[in-house]
Give the backbone structure.
Amino acid sequence: MNHPIFCHGDNGAGVTGSFVMDVYRNRLDGKYLRSDGTIQDEFTILKKNIPSINIIDTLCLGEAMTLSAVLSGGSDSLSILWDGTGETQNHITVNPIQSSVYTCNVTDHVTGQQSTSSYQIHVQECVNKVEGSILKPFILFPNPSKGKVEIYAEEVIQTLRVIDEQGKVVYQMSPQKNVLSLSLSHLPAGNYTFEATLSSGTHRKSLILAP
């Protein structure tokens, strides 16, 4: 459609025309069309708009999780590569046995943009998800912890000691029960050994207190 705002001088002759703009994904195409249908001028703008994300999630030991690449931007010419697995599809299913970090690299072959996203999966033993055999001799969670620690054991815990990296006993008790909830936020961040004495003997497990 002709519009006077698009009038311009073409070797002294007034010519009307229309400006057509088309937006698709991360691409904008603009064209100035003369009234006779020919293209006077055109341009293309490409936007590098694939986001990068950092996801932190928790998974119960023995369970699986599906991770998805971030494809909210970019052109139709994208490639995906998951570090560590070599997989190239949009979604992958992972079943880690320990806390792991997965990295997804997305490349836009039109703009040349490369985007990297990370997925930090913390694996922990979940009491309502595990069989009794995993409780032997006892479990600590969450691990790492910011101060609150839950302890479950199949047998009564007669004594419990928490030992720091220097071998010093920083906490001890005689609970006489098999389920404990401790608040250790007063202790500095670091690695600690939990030593529990049960009827079956003395057992030790490590736990990280995070800042």
